[in-house]
Amino acid sequence: MLHDLHSLGNIAAQIDEDVAVGTRNLVRIVAAADGLQLTQDEPAVWRHYSSTLFNVMRGGLPSHNYCISGADLRLFISKANRRVAQKHKDFLEELPESLPHRVLLERVRERRDPDLERLAQEYLPLTFSRRHGDPSRPWNSFEIKLKDEHGHRVLNYQGNWRDIFQNWEALSLSFPGFGESMIYKFLDSSTADGYNPYRISSDGYDWEIIDPHDPWSYIGYWGDHQVIYLLKLLEQAKRHYPDRLRKLLSRAIFSYANVPYRIRPYSSLLADPRNTIGFDSVAHRKTMDRSAELGADGKALLTRDGQLARANLAEKIFLVILTKLANFVPEAGIWMNTQRPEWNDANNALVGAGASMVTLYYLRRFLVFTRQLLAQAPEGEIELSAELAVLFGQVFDALQSFLPLLDSPISDHERKSILDALGSATSVYREKLYSQGLTGERSTVLVARLQSFCDFALKHLDHSIHANRRSDGLYHSYNLMTIAGDSIRIRTLHEMLEGQVAVLSSGALTPEQSVALLEALGKSSLYRPDQASYILYPNRRLPCFLQKNNIPRCEVEKSKLLIAMLERDDRRIVVRDVDGGIHFNASFCSVEKLKQGLRELKRSDFRQLAKEEEPQILDLYEKVFDHQSFTGRSGTFYKYEGLGCIYWHMVSKLLLAVREALERALASGADEFTLQHLRAHYNDIYEGLGIHKSPALYGAIPTDPYSHTPTFAGAQQPGMTGQVKEDFIARMGEMGVQVEDGKLAFVPELICKTEFLDGSRTFHYWDVKGTPRTLTLHRGTVAFTYCQLPVIAHRSGPRHIRVTLADGTSQLVDQLKLDAPTSAAIFDRSGTIERLDVFYDLA
């Protein structure tokens, strides 16, 4: 017995030691990603710690700051392109075991090989990453793989497209030097028809394949992720390194993913908007065979002569814009017709029948950014692929020719005419791409013409945004569209939170209009008083079974066919119950089944009436069931992203959108009344997130992020939610951090005064070398790290920054903005700066 107890004691001691080591490692990981803070608001500090940790687990973390392993880089390039690896074998083998990322890129550029440079730029030495997703779903098998079977360290990441790029947005705040590499990975994985594969990893990318034995297998392109996630990465890259994107505008260095999906011709989209994409199994097999021979680059698109198809940044950007405008339905949004939903897949049933104002709002922001970026173009003209240049010209002419229609509301006929012009032109481009590929030839387009294009597109989008302001002051998120001959009719849906978030983020609203929207939102049915927060969709009671499939008698009396069939007790289309109620035959689970029933009826003695009244019967069926308005689980569930449910990721998106609106208001010189209201709304949304709620009210531990909160329970599904990205970015803003034009600044107007300590405390952190350090803080200060550099913010003044260098000397900056060289040293984690002391002079 004593021996057993002694053994158990040893085991317990080992477990304690393992837990201690694991905890220390986790703290080091969080520290590297700027998750350590010390303020008077302890719950907020722990919430930031949790958000940082979960964001890293979704997107990964650079293994040793900007140090690149020569061995791992060689392994990456050999997996990506064996020809490039062989061509540069001596160069790669001569690389040291460890070298700075910046030095690597300098050496690679000297080789003057665009493929070697592209792969080196795309390389990201990330670790501690796992694929996001519910582990119960069969396609989401994942692991955090830190070591191989021999115990050697593994650098690896994997993720669903929309998940990993949104988390890299937050990661790039702490590692801005890798922001350009993230953009390379994004653009090299995008397709020449303007979309992207489903998953990416350190070994490349892959797409879904229909498996008849797997009911979860599916194909299709996601909607808005090519817009907002790319835009956020581009915006951050431009803020930190303003010259880098400018140089990429005209460099044809990017590649295209050769995903074997084939979007059907425009006429087919009109005929069946729910069945719009085919899978080219022959192209798939050829691509996979080539990949097995060459490496990940074997999945890249080739030109007709077998060379890698290349594109510059301008082409990649305009391909996204043109792809979205191809589905632009004026006053309705961007037509959702690629068999995948938009950002919130709770609305997946809207595919085909829906148009997304959410994507249109983000597209507007994308166009504004593009317009500004083009103003910095190094030359007066830019080359595009010849095929895309033709499409650009056609869409340019269409947008310009339809500008006079914007002086008044768009008619149903005009709406169809605009979509026809845009959709048909893009359809021709796609058909040539799929059948012939790209020639590799280039055409020159004037930068001024590209800018005019942005101006025309913005006028069209702003007209639609204005048309989508609701009478209650909110904005529509999604609309329904019905194609009828040469017209498109649109119907609106109920209010949704994501539309308000997107329009706030779009930049289309003035500061005063943003305040008005937030005031209306707080008075709307989307506000949930018990949690002082916002639900995705209004809570409502769904109809019971007996309330469905009831045809009004007045509608039946309009149909000679239905009256005749009821008189004969013919139940092939409708049936009469014992109480005299009339219903459609229960076998008609969709309008397609009803059409089949009517076709059979045309071969009976009802043939003439069936032929005459088919449109009337189909309209009646839709009127009874309103299948077009069915959104999916958002309109049928009471959990997850369902009715009356708070989806915390969207609330955090709202928080960040309000912060952006506040920053724009400050930059535009808005009056103090407007600024106070924006701050008040930000604070109210922040408090509603739950950080300071009791566990009883929150329904869980409030310092951890959770997925959602239904009306009948507390917070559900902890941890791996996309909310952590928004919360991380917003939290850095709450510390006053702002970057613009390559300069790090601190904005006192964004600081919460209650965060400052009321007494002395010790701040524990890890410096950029991974060494644990401590700092003594005094009353009236807070501490946090930015790019793993400790920043001590002082409530006292006068306003200035003290920069303490690694050699012990210090420099004083008489404003709250650093110069570009000092900022770059911080962004690059150079270690030449020891700490920053920021003095705010707050009353």
Radius of gyration: 29 Å
Could you name the ranges where pLDDT drops below 50 across 5 or more consecutive residues? 1-9, 11-15
- Give the termini separation: 68 Å
Pairing-aware structural class of the strands and helices? alpha+beta
Average the pLDDT over all residues and give the rounded result.
92
Q: In this structure, how is the largest beta sheet organized?
A: 6 strands, mixed
Give the count of helical stretches. 29
Number of strands: 33
The general outline is globular
Structure in words:
By secondary structure, this protein is of the alpha+beta class. Among the domains are: 1-27; 175-506, no CATH class; 545-629, no CATH class; 735-843, no CATH class. Helices cover 45% and strands 15% of the residues. It has 29 helices and 33 strands. The strands form twelve sheets. It has a six-stranded mixed sheet. A five-stranded antiparallel sheet has the order 11-12-13-16-17. It has a three-stranded antiparallel sheet with strand order 6-7-8, covered by helices on one side. A hairpin with a 2-residue loop joins strand 29 (781-786) and strand 30 (789-794). Helix 14 (313-325) packs across helix 16 and helix 25 (648-668) packs antiparallel against helix 26 (672-688). It is globular. It starts with a helix and ends with a strand.
